[in-house]
Amino acid sequence: MKRVIMVFIVLIVLAFSCNDHEIDNTDTFEVTVAGANCGLILIDFNEGDLGRIKNITGSDWSRYRAYNLDDRFSEIGQKLIVFVRKTKDDELHPCTTMEPGYPWVTVIKAELGDGSTITACNDTLPTTELCDAYYKTWFYDKTTSSCVQIEYSGCSMKGFETKEKCESCKNNNVTGG
Fold first, then answer.
1. Which residue, among 118, 115, 56, has the nearest Cα to 87 in the 3D structure?
2. Short-list 130, 171, 128, CA closest to 147
3. 143/92 same-domain check
4. 128 and 97, same structural domain?
5. If DSSP codes are grouped into helix, strand and coil, which group holds residue 40?
C-alpha cells in the first residue's frame, strides 16, 4: 500500500513539474532602449513595472538584454511597447563583457511607444529560423511590387501585421530592415 501511495505522489509531482509555464507567463511593457550589450539591445523597464517583470524573469533588475528584438528598434532613448516572456536556457549564449551581466528577456513582439510603426521593406524573405512563435505575416515582394501573405515561424518578427501596412512599401520604396 505504501508503494502505491508513493507511486501516486511521484506521478502527481511529475505531472506538475513537466509543464512548461514559460510561454504562459508573458506581459506587455513600455520600455526605453538603453544601448547594446553582447550583440543584444538593452532595454530599461519603468520602475513601476519591476514587480511584473520579476514575475516573468525571476530578476528584479530594471535593465535587460532583449533577445529577439529587431535591430530596427535600436535607437538609444527610443520608447517601445514590448510583449515579452522569460528567455529559455537553450536561447542563452555566453558573453564576456566588462559591463554587468544583465538578465535576459525574450521579446515576442515590439512596436514604437508612440503607437506608430516602422516600415522596413525587404527584398528578401524573412529567415527560416525556428522559434516558438508561428504566425501569418505580410511580405513586400519588390520583384512584383506587391504584398503576399506568408506563414512564418521565425523569431525576428519581420514582415507586416496587415496588408495595408505592407502596401506602404509601394509608396515609400524604403529599403532596409
1. 56
2. 171
3. no
4. no
5. strand
The x, y and z cell numbers of residue 57, run together, are: 524573469
Q: What is the pLDDT of residues 8-23, one digit of tens each?
A: 787 776 666 554 444 5
Q: What is the CATH number for 84?
A: 2.40.50
Would you say 91 and 106 are in contact if contact means Cβ atoms under 8 Å apart? yes
In a domain, 104, yes or no: yes
Asked if residue 11 is part of any domain, the answer here is no
Whether residue 30 is found in the same domain as residue 92:
yes
Return the C-alpha cell found at 25: 507567463
Chain segment 27-72, per-residue pLDDT in tens? 888 999 988 877 788 899 999 988 988 888 888 888 888 888 887 8
Helix (H, G, I), strand (E, B) or coil at 111: strand
SS3 171: helix
Q: Which long-range contacts (CB under 8 A, 24 or more apart) does 160-165 make?
A: 161/137, 162/138, 163/138, 165/117, 165/119, 165/138
Find out whether 104 and 67 touch, Cβ atoms under 8 Å: yes
Q: Read off the pTM.
A: 0.54
